[in-house]
Specification:
The protein is an all-alpha fold and 61 residues long. Helix content is 84%, strand content 0%. The chain has one domain. The chain is elongated and about 50 Å long.
């Protein structure tokens, strides 16, 4: 689980960097395909972490 959280944090950092670069170039975030793709990666990782946490909480009950 900690490896997944580390990966999520790294992907979030990448997303933030892409977003900042896009805004500096006056490119709206929704018009930047690289930002959108990275955002989907982060969303997928967040969903995986949520699923794992939900499974763990069910086991603990």
């Amino acid at each position: 689980m900690s490896r997944l959280l580390d990966l999520l944090e790294e992907e979030r950092r990448k997303l933030n960097q892409l977003g900042e670069a896009s805004l500096k170039q006056a490119i709206p975030l929704w018009d930047n395909p690289a930002v959108q793709e990275q955002s989907r990666r982060v969303d997928e990782l967040v969903a995986r972490v949520s699923e794992i946490k939900a499974k763990q909480s069910r086991v603990l009950r």
